[in-house]
Every structure is written in C-alpha cells, then in structure tokens.
Design brief:
The protein is mostly helical. 63% of the residues lie in helices and 4% in strands. A 3-stranded antiparallel sheet has the order 1-2-3. Helix 15 crosses helix 16. The longest helix has 27 residues. It is globular and about 65 Å long.
Length: 486
C-alpha cells in the first residue's frame, strides 16, 4: 500500500511540475473539447427518426427556414418526413409557443447538410453543445482563477450524460443554456472591471450580456429569468459594495442612478434582439395570428398572449413528467427514445430481447455529488457571504428557482440543462475547498483525480443508453438503478 501511495504521490508531483503544468494548461482544454466533440458527434444521425420533441422543432425549423414562419403539416407526417419527404408542409400557419431563434439555428443545419439527413437535424445543437464545454472552461477560469479547475469543469461537463443527450437532440434547451452561460461570462467580465466610485453609463460587457440574454429569450422565454437574476444581482451587489465602502450617497448613486444605467444597458438590447428573431413572422403574411390586428406589433402581442396562455395552462399528463423539486436528484429522467427487439429479430441474440434507448440521464457520479454541492454552497454562502459562492448560486437562481412556482404545470427533468453548468461549478467549488484546506493537499488532490476517473468510468458504463446503442435488454435494465428511471 505504501508503495502505491508513493507512486501516486510521485505522479501528482510530476503533474504539478512546471513543465507538465504548462503542457496541461496548453493542450488539456483542446483535449476536453475533442472529447466533448466525439461524444456529441459520434453516430449523431442515429436514430434516423424524430425523437421526443424533435417532432415539433425539426419540422417547424424546416418550414421556418423555407417560408419565414412555422407551417402546419398533414396528419401523421413523421414517417414521410423521416423517409425524406420533407417538403409536404401545408400553407396553413402553425401555432407554436416558443420563439424562433432556436429553430432558425436548427434550420440552418438542415439547410447546410440536407433536411433528408437526420444528422442535419441535430448538428447545430451538437455544435452548440461542444461550444458550451469550451465556454464553461472560460467561465470557470474567471471564477476560480485556475486553468486546472477550469479544465476539470469542462471535463465533467463534457462527459455528463444529461449534457450529451441534450446536445445530440434537436431540442431548444441546450441552446438556451449556451446563451445564458455566455451572458454569465459577460457579466463576470463586467464585474471584474466594475467601478463603484462613479456611475458608469457605458459598460460594453453589460451590453454584450444583454445581447446574449436577448438570444436566450429568443430561444425560450426562460431566458427572462436569467435577465432578472443577473440584473438584480449587478444592481444590488454594487449598491451594497458602495455602502460597505462608506459612500454616503450609496442609495442614490447605487440603486437609483447605477440601477437605471444597468437597466438601460441590458434590457432594451435584450428586447431588441428578441424582436429581431421574429423578423420572418413580421415580414411575411402567412404566420399564425399575423393579421389578427391592423398592424404587426399589436398582432405580435396577441400571439404572445395566446402562447402565454398555453404555457400557464399546460397540465397534460405525461409518462415522463417530472416535478421540479426532484430535478436536482435526477428522480425521473426523460426517455427520448426506446425501441426493443425480440430474440432472433434483426440479429438480436439475447434471450430476453434487445434494447436501444436514449435517456436524458445525468452521470450519477457527477449529478448527485453536484446536487449535494449545491446545498453546501448555499449554506456556505449564508454563513460567509463569499462572493464566489454567490455567483455560482446566481445561475441556479435564474435557471431553477422560478420553476418552483410552476409545480402545477407539466415539466420535465431535461429542463435542468439550463442550470447544469452551475451545478458543476458548485461541485468544483466544494472540491477546491476540500483540496485547498486539506492537511495533506497532495493526497487530497490525488483523491480528486481518482474521482475524475470514477466519473469517466460512469460515462463509459452509461454511454450506450445516452446514444441509443443496441444492447441486450438485461444490460439496459442494469442501468436502471432507480425504479423511477424506467
């Protein structure tokens, strides 16, 4: 045992050496991005069927790209669409309840690679998912001031099943996550330069954050929650900092003047970007409710009223609906796709049959420790008011807390992708705290490396049910650790 410890200690000391550290800092981020790309692009076209809500977004994206608005389809169009008959849409408008930007991006991939190819349905989302891994590393480096912890954050995000499945499926939520994470990055850049001595009316990073939040909101309205969370944080934290610095006019200068400046630099640009995403609907005559009133603006308001009414009233039963209170614990992951074969059918050699499954299930070795870390960070912040902990909780405040008020509504576990990056940041916050405060930091660092290997082993085990690999039924069932996962 002592010899094994000696070897591990020597290896860690080598990794901490100047030459090794330089190599890791320079090349490891690219290796993480390459790993993320492989896990998101490998056999991306499987299955060549519309899975889960792709039945809406893919077809809507194609009609949006070709006509400027979403169109209706004949009854039961999926089989024909999957067979390559992608232009059978009707001239009638379709009532859709999500903004257009995410579908514009899906449509771009379809235009680029051919709508008849299932790879093209998903390529835009996959590339955005890969970019999100790189973006999280940039965010983590700003937060932790360490390339090593940034690489660890990207690595865990790259290999988590929830992130992998959402990036491999033509849904909107992974794209929403990218834009709100991008906005968070811009907020961090702004906060690094903030000046509490004067009222600043031009803060380019805040304007950039507004652009990103406008794009997020143009994918899903959930982007507005992040706009509120980030904006309130900036105004309140800066006013509190002014008060702590002893400024007598902290209330007037901080809350009122600087609050107004922050509002004007974020909110109008957010709304402008959101409105631009509706250009196709505005400039054409065939969109749903386009001619509900005498002008496009009031017609757009009527459309939004109808969409809002749909969202707040959505309470239809669904086999994979999941209460928001259970999301942190991954109690009911969403099954996006499942097919089974009997013994002897299409080459199935398993006596109890074969399965092909795509389940938006997070890597348990990442998800559950990350969930526990969220509670640790929350308690830590309540006790210490440490700014780093508060910033990590900020993403959870924008991405998770609002859903607590919609527990009557039909919701799904996969919505959690919007705040998964902050769960991973919480996990890294705890790991960093453990390593930096350990009596034997080298040993603590070694345990963390072993944890990363365990997480990677978990990914290798669960990968087949994330990408639809055909396996014996018993092997699929082996992955169903909780009855609620089935």
């Amino acid at each position: 045992m002592s010899s094994i410890r000696a070897v591990i200690t020597s290896f860690i000391n080598f990794l901490n050496g100047t030459r090794a550290r330089k190599l890791i800092d320079n090349f490891a981020p690219w290796a993480v991005i390459a790993l993320a790309a492989f896990l998101r692009l490998w056999q991306l076209g499987y299955p060549s069927k519309l899975v889960f809500d792709e039945t809406y977004y893919v077809k809507d994206a194609w009609t949006l790209w070709n006509t400027g608005t979403e169109k209706a389809w004949p009854q039961d169009p999926n089989l024909a669409f999957e067979a390559g008959q992608v232009n059978n849409y009707l001239s009638d408008p379709s009532f859709v309840v999500h903004p257009p930007l995410g579908k514009w991006l899906i449509g771009f991939g379809m235009w680029l690679f051919g709508a008849e190819n299932s790879f093209s349905w998903r390529i835009s989302t996959a590339l955005i998912g890969i970019a999100s891994v790189a973006l999280l590393m940039l965010v983590a480096k700003l937060l932790f001031k360490s390339q090593g912890w940034a690489i660890a954050a990207g690595f865990l995000f790259a290999i988590d099943g929830h992130a992998i499945v959402l990036a491999r499926t033509a849904l909107l939520d992974s794209t929403l996550m990218f834009f709100v994470l991008l906005a968070f990055y811009f907020v961090l850049k702004d906060q690094a330069l903030r000046n509490i001595d004067v009222v600043v009316w031009f803060r380019p990073w805040l304007i950039a954050a507004g652009l990103a939040l406008g794009a997020a909101t143009a994918v899903k309205w959930s982007g507005l929650y992040f706009l509120a969370a980030f904006g309130i944080y900036i105004v309140v934290s800066e006013a509190v900092a002014r008060r702590a610095a002893g400024q007598k006019d902290w209330l007037t200068a901080g809350f009122i003047k600087q609050g107004a400046a922050t509002f004007l630099q974020m909110v109008p640009i957010t709304l402008f970007v959101y409105l631009i995403s509706w250009t196709g609907w505005i400039l054409t005559a065939g969109g749903y409710d386009r001619n509900a009133t005498d002008n496009w603006f009031t017609s757009l308001i009527e459309y939004h009223k109808a969409a809002y009414g749909f969202h707040v009233a959505l309470a239809a039963p669904h086999a994979y609906a999941s209460n928001p209170l259970s999301w942190l614990f991954a109690i009911r992951p969403t099954s996006f796709f499942y097919e089974g074969l009997k013994y002897g059918e299409n080459g199935c050699l398993s006596a109890d049959g074969c399965s092909s499954a795509i389940t938006a299930l997070g890597n348990p070795f990442i998800w559950w420790p990350a969930a526990a870390s969220v509670f640790f960070v929350a308690v830590w912040y309540a006790k210490t008011r440490e700014r780093l902990a508060g910033l990590i909780l900020l993403g959870l405040a924008g991405g998770y807390l609002p859903w607590i008020f919609y527990m009557h509504r039909t919701t799904f576990q996969f919505y959690a992708i919007a705040f998964l990056p902050w769960m991973i940041l919480a996990l890294l916050f705890v790991a960093r705290h453990y390593v930096s405060n350990a009596v034997r930091p080298i040993r603590a660092q070694g345990w963390f490396y072993l944890y990363l290997l365990l997480a990677l082993a978990g990914t290798m085990f669960f990968l087949p049910i994330w990408i639809g690999t055909w396996t014996p039924y018993w092997y699929w069932h082996l992955h169903m650790w909780l009855p609620s996962w089935i």
